[in-house]
Every structure is written in structure tokens, then in C-alpha cells.
Amino acid sequence: MAARAAQSHVGMARRLATDPDARERRRRLLAIPSSIRGVGDAVLQAAALVDGATAEAKAAGAQRDEEERAELLRMLGVGDGPVPPAYRGQLRQLEEQQKRRATRAQRDHLDRAMVDLLAFYRDVVAVQLGAGVDLVNADVEEAVHALAARSTAEQTLRRMDAIGEARVRLAANVAPLLAVEAMLIALRPQG
């Protein structure tokens, strides 16, 4: 399951195989398409998805950021006391680099979520077209078949296009919440 879901991403496969929290996050992510009934649901799910990506990025970088800050202060000969004005610029520069790295990490987490959603919809359209191929997301086969039964292949392809557009917007530095909201609104059932 982990190898298939990771789609050739060795680090993700390892994480899914060994980290129950990663499997749970993925399970919640793949439940989103079935849980969106309208715009309100889409907006709430978007906020949760962006908040989750932000929290993951902060958690992943917090210890590293603190170690870098301590190392810089040690190299500058500053103890635990106040930072002298002459060194504040260097500290500010480090903090700006760390903030940019956290933003990249957040966007990477969101992009990975979008890749997982694309794989989910790939499975849906494969079922709709009777392609007879193995599902990437065999662990959520029931949800794939349920969504395939209540939508058309054309709707599924439009949803995949919306995810692709969200990835482009995210790469173009659009505010993550706006990009994810627009994407999830496009995923809601039509008619």
C-alpha cells in the first residue's frame, strides 16, 4: 500500500510504511472528495488542509531553526543575553531565510497533497472508463468506486484540471489558502 500510494517517492513510501500519523493524514486527505457537499464544506476543508500543511512545515523546521539560531549566536560570541545591535542584521537575515524555507515546506506539503488527490481522481476516472488497471489507492477502493458511480468521467477530468491549476497557482506564489479554496470548490458535486 505504501509503495503504491507513494508513486515512486521513496521517502514518502518509507513515511507511509513506518509513520501511523502520515497514514492518518493521507486517509483524511483522501476523504475530502467524498466530504465536500458545497462551498462551505470546501472552504472549511481548505482551511484545515492549509493549517495542517503549515503545522507540518513548522514542526519539521522548528528544531532546525533553533539549532541554526543557537549556532549563529555562538559563532558571534553572544550568549543567552540580548543580541548587540551590530549583530541584529545577521540574526534577522537568518530568520528571513528560515521563514522562506518554512513557506517552501508548506507549499511542498500542499503540493504533495494535490499529487495524492490527482492519484485518487486518476483511480476514479480509471473505474469510470473501465480501464482495468490496478488502483494507486487500493486502500480506499470503496470511496473510489462510490465517487465513480455518482459522477461522470468528464466531471472527474474537470476536477483533475482544477487540481492541476491549483498546483500552478501555488508555484506562481498565489496565497495557499486562496489556491486550495478554489481547487476544493471545483471538486464539489455539480448539479
Which properties best describe this structure?
single chain, 191 residues, mainly alpha, Zinc Finger, Delta Prime, domain 3, 80% helix, elongated
Walk me through what this model shows.
The chain is an all-alpha fold. It has a single domain, classed as Zinc Finger, Delta Prime, domain 3. The chain contains eight helices and no strands. The chain has helices at 2-6, 10-18, 20-35, 39-76, 85-128, 141-149, 153-171, 176-187. The chain starts with a helix and ends with a helix. 25% of the residues are buried.
Which structural class do you get from the secondary structure elements? mainly alpha
What is the correct CATH architecture?
A: Up-down Bundle
Overall mean pLDDT: 90
Basic shape:
elongated
Stated plainly, the CATH topology is called Zinc Finger, Delta Prime, domain 3
TL;DR?
The chain has helices at residues 2-6, 10-18, 20-35, 39-76, 85-128, 141-149, 153-171, 176-187.
Helix and strand topology:
Layout: H1 2-6, H2 10-18, H3 20-35, H4 39-76, H5 85-128, H6 141-149, H7 153-171, H8 176-187
Helix pairs in contact: 2-3, 3-5, 4-5, 4-8, 5-6, 5-7, 7-8
